[in-house]
Amino acid sequence: MHYKKIKKVLAVLAIGSMLTFTAAGCSLSNNSNSTTTSSETVEAVDINNLFSDRDQDSSYDASSPKITLSDSSITSDSDNAKVSGNTATISAGGTYIITGSASDAQIIIDAGTDKVQLVLDNASLTSSSAAAIYVKQADKVFVTLADGTTNTISISSDSVEMDDSTVDGAIYSKDDLTFNGNGTLNVTSTKTNGIVGKDDLKLVSGTINVTSGNHAIQG
Q1: Is the sign of the CA dihedral 27, 33, 38, 43 positive or negative?
Q2: Cβ-contact 73, 96 below 8 angstroms
Q3: Strand ranges (DSSP E) for 8-155?
Q4: Where in 132-219 does DSSP place strands (E)?
Q5: pLDDT at 108
Q6: Among the listed ranges 15-19, 48-52, 126-130, 137-141, which one has the minimum average pLDDT value?
């Protein structure tokens, strides 16, 4: 497993390592077949200098539209989250609650210049063909880990070419991406990267465990 300082991953710049990372209330465990364990002490940082108020706001309306995952079908109660086969595509800003379990499905965010909040509420999503969560376009996406929940995002495929990009992570974002909330997220990518952000990537709070064949986080 290789680690490098990640351009524009603001939280990681303040993270100490032991292959369990802690910064601003966010823990990240990084597991691989071959790891080196070390410890490093870092100075405390003011999270207000790293994160905006919106980054730190993990609240949401429980009556927001829901995308419910299952192996038989994906359902959505929002016209702005259309389902085609095993893919749900979010096309407008707002909050969407993701729940249920699907062994081969994908969520795509293609919302133009809108902000989108994805609330993971005991969601389990696996994709065999591309990133399980793929942010194609948005002003910013907030992935909120609902309090007390355990969520799983995984992918078993190699990298794929999509929209003139090499999509090579279980969670892949072409735009700003923030993780917050007080739940747990387990990310597994057996052949590629765990979380990939091509713009600002912020880990504000929650517990994030990444097992990957390459980088845990890549920017």
Answers
A1: negative
A2: no
A3: 20-23, 26-31, 66-69, 75-76, 81-84, 87-90, 94-102, 106-110, 115-127, 133-137, 140-145, 150-155
A4: 133-137, 140-145, 150-155, 160-162, 165-167, 169-173, 176-181, 184-189, 193-197, 201-203, 206-212, 217-218
A5: 98
A6: 15-19
- For 55-77, write each residue's pLDDT tens digit: 999 999 999 999 999 998 999 99
Cβ partners under 8 Å of residue 38, min gap 6: 17, 18
Is position 45 within any domain? Answer: no
| Total number of domains constituting the chain | 1
Amino acid identity, position 62: A
| 184/208 Cα distance (integer angstroms) | 6
What tokens were used for 40?
């490093």
Neighbours of 70 (CB within 10 A): 13
Contact between 174 and 168 (Cβ < 8 Å): no
Q: Which domain holds residue 188?
A: 64-218
pTM given for the model: 0.83
pLDDT in tens, 134-166: 999 999 999 999 999 999 999 988 778 888 778
